[in-house]
Amino acid sequence: MNVPDWAMYAGTAALALGLLTLVVALVPRSPGPESAEERVASYTARITALANEGVGELMALVGVTDALDVSAMVSVWISIFDSLVDWWLDHPDQDAAAMTQRCVRLFAAVTRADLGSVLA
Predict the structure, then answer these.
(1) Is 52 in contact with 74 (CB distance < 8 Å)?
(2) What percent of the chain has pLDDT over 70?
């Protein structure tokens, strides 16, 4: 399968972000009591910041710089990311290498779709 370099990057980035999120969720960042709500809000803010940075870089690589397009793609990305992490948690038999390859295949399949006739 001939997968574009940027699709490989996107699939690997999805997996890396997922693993980073799991680490962030499991490693305490500061001593002292913190409510569950505060902790979730803190992790959500950190994940959203990472998504904004990563999606912004990826969109810039393909020449998309419109702030609303980037914002919309961040929302899409977070939904995709959450779904892939949920799927992976439901399939604990899948190791990191298998999940990386799965993400690459999924992103490659989506990016190969010919949307020109749909939008015409």
Answers:
(1) yes
(2) 67
